[in-house]
Specification:
single chain, alpha/beta, OB fold (Dihydrolipoamide Acetyltransferase, E2P), Rossmann fold, 3 domains, seven-stranded mixed sheet, six-stranded mixed sheet, 10 helices, about 30% strand, globular, binds S-adenosylmethionine, rRNA (uridine-C5-)-methyltransferase activity, 23S rRNA (Uracil-5-)-methyltransferase RumA, transferase, NA-bd_OB-fold, S-adenosyl-L-methionine
Length: about 450
């Protein structure tokens, strides 16, 4: 503890930190890159690993680049801005391969064959269509930003290179008006103040939704502020919705589900177009955050699913029905399941507004709905899975194995849980055909993966 050490960095850990060996210990050094010799100081020692703080780079790698963001060192939003984009993509492919070998226990030669190169983004900056910023009161000021890694503290910055340029001006307008009207950011210490989170989302037409997350109380001046923002939008942008989401934080900070929503301006939702279909998205509903890569993600997923007009498709974890309806254009029928009830209402509305009468949506947890749906008389040939980071879990996989569809396309944002679930599917009689990683989150350590799985004859 406290020792200064010189380390040879061997690889990147899955969170993008440099990994080195020192006296039998694995040492994680944030900011260090593979192939580098660095000086670091040990700051935490655990049983089998230690954490060290980077002090100096003795020999940098040729893949090191200067991070463009002024707060890259502290902000938890990006982890890889110091690594060339080509090397970021190689790293992400390796993360997927490692998870399949270590967690999925698949043979390295098979994994090498299955895992394709990562599909990168031509312009890997300013790609997000949504930001969720944590708000805090700091020296009497309203601060909102991505949090510092491992803390709840937002990092203050006037810009962010993974969100649209116009958001800089937009957020400045919102925050200035909050300050002028005495709307305060929530202060954890005194447990007072109004705004806990600020969410901005926009679509390809540059229509904007602002969501203000507060406690259960009324937001004083909320409607006036929203109307004022509508008149001050950055050039080319139009405000279409301002929502106050009220949440009651239960004991020990556990968030109770008795949230309510109030429309302070415009509509309760925003619309987005994907591949010729129009989707309504409510404030609490999920939408992929990188619209350019999403089109590729869906195209690859649908190719892997190879849906014909005879196929019955189940889309588990379906959000507002984006993939379900794209699949529904080709299928005999599609059935979507999603836990956020507002998203399910959006999905039903989206089926109607796109004239797709063969799509059906159910609200509930896949763990509970899937076994019922799969034991009913509707038999799926194709199942699409797109779970959150936790993956599907054993009950869902067991229900899938019993239903035995011919094809499963599993979209995952977490290679570790994907590898765990794939192992169960393969042991249950499926064969893994291909694993296509796609970079939905350039500059971060996250990677999205599309896996194609077929029932063995
Ligand atoms: C990664 S998103 C995918 C959504 C959709 N496929 C898309 O591309 O927009 C995962 C979705 O699963 C929902 N979800 C999370 N846990 C769930 C569960 N246990 N059962 C049903 N839906 C769940 C989330 O609300 C979210 O909409």
């Amino acid at each position: 503890m406290g020792d200064p050490v010189t380390l040879q960095v061997e690889r990147l850990g899955y969170r993008g930190e440099g990994v080195a060996r020192y006296r039998g210990f694995t040492i994680f050094v944030e900011g260090a890159l593979p192939g580098e010799t660095v000086e670091a100081q040990i700051t935490q020692v655990k049983r089998s690993f230690a954490i060290a703080e980077l002090r100096a780079i003795v020999h940098p790698t040729s893949e090191r680049v200067v991070p463009l963001c002024p707060v890259f060192d502290v902000c938890g939003g990006c982890q890889l801005q110091h690594l060339s984009y080509a090397a970021q993509l190689q790293f992400k492919r390796q993360v997927v391969k490692d998870a399949l070998v270590r967690i999925g226990k698949f043979a390295a030669e098979d994994v090498q064959r299955w895992v394709q190169p990562v599909i990168g983004q031509e312009e890997p900056w300013r790609y997000r269509n949504k930001v969720s910023l944590t708000a805090t009161a700091r020296a009497g000021r309203f601060v909102a930003g991505f949090v510092e890694e491992g803390t709840h503290e937002p990092v203050e910055s006037t810009t962010c290179l993974i969100r649209p340029h116009a958001y800089d001006e937009l957020l400045q307008i919102i925050i200035t008006q909050f300050e002028q009207h005495g709307v305060r950011a929530y202060d954890e210490q005194s447990q007072s103040g109004d705004v806990r989170q600020l969410i901005v989302r926009s679509n390809h037409k540059h229509e904007v939704m602002i969501v203000i997350l507060t406690g259960m109380h009324e937001l004083v001046h909320g409607r006036e502020l929203a109307a004022a923002w509508a008149k001050q939008m950055p050039q080319g942008y139009r405000l279409v919705s301002v929502i106050q989401q009220k949440r009651n934080d239960g004991k020990n900070g556990v968030r109770k589900r008795d949230a309510s929503e109030e429309v302070l301006y415009g509509d309760a939702s925003i619309q987005e177009q994907i591949d010729g279909l129009t989707f309504r998205i409510s404030a609490s509903a999920f939408l992929q955050v990188n619209p350019i890569q999403t089109r590729i993600l869906y195209e690859k997923a649908l190719n892997a699913a190879a849906i014909s007009s005879q196929d019955v498709v189940f889309d588990f974890y379906c959000g507002v029905g984006t993939l379900s309806l794209l699949a529904g254009r080709q299928a005999k029928a599609v059935y979507g399941v999603e836990s956020v009830s507002a998203a399910v209402e959006d999905a039903k509305f989206n089926a109607r507004q796109n004239g797709l009468t063969n799509a059906h949506f159910y609200a509930g947890f896949v763990e509970q709905v899937a076994p019922q749906l799969l034991s009913s008389e509707v038999h799926p040939n194709v199942i699409l899975l797109d779970p959150p980071r936790a993956g599907c879990g054993p009950e869902v996989i067991t229900a899938l194995l019993q239903a035995s569809p011919q094809r499963i396309v599993y979209i995952s944002c977490n290679p570790a849980t994907l590898a765990r679930d794939l192992r169960q599917l393969v042991d249950g009689g499926y064969a893994l055909q291909s694993v296509e990683p796609i970079d939905m989150f350039p500059q971060t350590a996250h990677v999205e993966v599309i896996s194609s799985i077929v029932l063995k004859k």
